[in-house]
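User: Mind token order:
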Amino acid sequence: MSAIYLDHNATTPLLPEVWDAMRPLMTETFGNPSSAHATGRKARQALEDAREKIAGLLGAHPDEVTFTSGATEANNLAIFGLMGKQRQPNPLTPFASLSAGPVSGASRGPATKEGGTEPNTQATTPQAPALSPSPLRGGVWKGLWPQPTPPSPLPEGKGEKELSTDTAPSTEKMRASSPFPSGRGDGGVGCLSSRLEHPCVVEPLRHLESLGVGVEWMPANARGVIESGAIAARAGSLVCVMLANHETGAVQPVREIALALPKGARLHCDAVQAVGKMPVNFRELGATTLTASAHKFGGPKGVGVLLAKRGTSLTPLTYGGHQQQGRRPGTEPVALAVGFAVALELATRNMDTNRTKLESHRARLWTALERTCPPVVLNGPEIGAPDVVPTTLNVSFPGCRSDLLLMSLDLAGVACATGSACSSGSLLPSPVLRAMGVPDEVLKSALRFSFSPAQTSEEIDDAAARIAKCVSATRA
């Protein structure tokens, strides 16, 4: 019995053309792109060619493209960078305090309106701020011996999961002691987003929320789409809205949201499940920042991109190099960057043909499941809807538990998921479906199937038959 892989939203196989393009850059043109010699210059040329190609395919300028290790890093860099503050240590994790000393020319000046800093022309001894853009505060680490651990905001003996609403610190108390401004933008909140977002967007926002930054969580409708009018009415300084949902495929009205935002508000768009599957033009979307990941469309794992509009100030998460305008220092992964560019070029070239195949797969599987194992419930946009990425079909099987059905399907050779790969190890119900108002019985029996244009109709039919058999056995 051959395996049928229906989890392409989690990752995709590397395309042969991508591997062929990457291999010479790991064995022949392997130089460090920051090196001044000929081998380094060849690597630099390959890197910049990849940057230009990606920028052209996504409607951006080459200097707006920053390579990262993937979407998680890119989303963290966008969110914390746009807020203009360095990431704080987890309050549940001991963290040695840092001491700053006078270093000529290294101290940082006051924050600018964009959230960055201006250079300080005088060598001064900086005062230890509550939160610095750099962990070293422009000085030096004066010792590696243990320092006093900052007090935890949690009651003694309580872990994060044990806190009740009665004992948890109030938002007002956290905000009062927070190093962040209490309000940003016209809406009086620091960030605005929804529970539809991927964990690598939700968790950074929750972390900021724990530090006292105001975060407003917007509701979604039953199709899994945010209403653009609601966001426009209460926009804060940073709005985070994905382009295509990772669990339902629902496309969000990012362009409409961008047009409706008040002046000064910034928009971050996680486009990981959209890039390579639908047309994405950074300039036309109107986002301040946008993220993508190569392994979602036939590229290599370990490389993502962050697009940041010209003139945008981003505080880096890491320090120690000049690369990529200082936004993401460190030696750039040339082979991975080239793999990203080649995979994106192939996906863009074949996008119309691929979409036709994917729409057929989505409709075919849904029709077969409706016929062979009712009752079934479609979660997200309806079949044939224009506002859906057709790689994705989210279906609930009332009377089944999704975790048991997932294991049964795995034994039957069908690979699928209960949610995003970053959270599918959790036994908790999908926060995306919960945000959509899905009833409990439907919520706890949901599975996500995601397709590849390389798959055949026969594979989809075979998968449907195996799914129906497993559903019947699980319900029995």
Notes: The chain has 15 helices and 14 strands.
